[in-house]
Amino acid sequence: MNSVYYIYESIFGKIIIESDGSAVTLLKTESFAKPSGKKESDVITDMAAGQLDEYFAGKRNRFDVPLCPHGTDFQVTVWNELCKIPYGETRSYKQIAQAAGKPGACRAVGMANNRNPIWIMIPCHRVIGSNGALTGYGGGLEMKQQLLDIEKHEKRGKQQV
């Protein structure tokens, strides 16, 4: 199946959700996304949009829509490690490098984060500097802080989906 994409209206503006028919392949704000395929929704983009609605409303703390990010083996390893960071928590680039089996590859982890094609669902916003400082995020540090604030606030609140 050819890819399709849907434009999702979020608190951060328009987000492109792209699907290959079986998984989300791209999720980024419109200013950072260059979608391919036809502009229409499918069951995957609809599922992703629904889960984003729940996430932004504080009713979802993990995503279970199928994801298929395209990247190098190392990037995919890093992205898999990012998905293991619990909701409302953060990890340093060094911790992710260690978890990925490459303890000296902090900069490479940063580059893998930079190339993450599925923002929010592959939570690169949960990666911070070793000193606790917010560092690089494709959507900007303000968006990163807002995503962390959503999770911090909701983690203190009710039980999540």
In a few lines, what is going on in this structure?
The protein is 35% helix and 16% strand.
Structure description:
By secondary structure, the chain is an alpha/beta fold. The protein folds into two domains: 4-56, no CATH class; 73-156, Winged helix-like DNA-binding domain superfamily/Winged helix DNA-binding domain (Arc Repressor Mutant, subunit A, Orthogonal Bundle). It has helices spanning 43-56, 73-82, 93-99, 106-114, 141-156, and strands spanning 4-10, 13-19, 24-29, 38-39, 91-92, 127-128. A four-stranded mixed β-sheet has the order 3-2-1-4, covered by helices on one side. Strands 5-6 form a two-stranded parallel ribbon. A hairpin with a 4-residue loop joins strand 2 (13-19) and strand 3. It starts with a strand and ends in a 5-residue tail after the last helix.
Pick out its properties.
161 residues; alpha/beta; Arc Repressor Mutant, subunit A; four-stranded mixed beta sheet; two-stranded parallel ribbon; 5 helices; 6 strands; globular; disordered C terminus
Which homologous superfamily in CATH is the superfamily of the largest domain?
A: Winged helix-like DNA-binding domain superfamily/Winged helix DNA-binding domain
Shape: globular
How many distinct beta strands?
6
The Cα radius of gyration reads 15 Å
Instruction: Estimate the helix proportion, in percent.
Output: 25-40%
What's the helix and strand layout?
Layout: E1 4-10, E2 13-19, E3 24-29, E4 38-39, H1 43-56, H2 73-82, E5 91-92, H3 93-99, H4 106-114, E6 127-128, H5 141-156
Parallel strand pairs: 1-4, 5-6
Antiparallel strand pairs: 1-2, 2-3
Helix pairs in contact: 2-4, 3-4
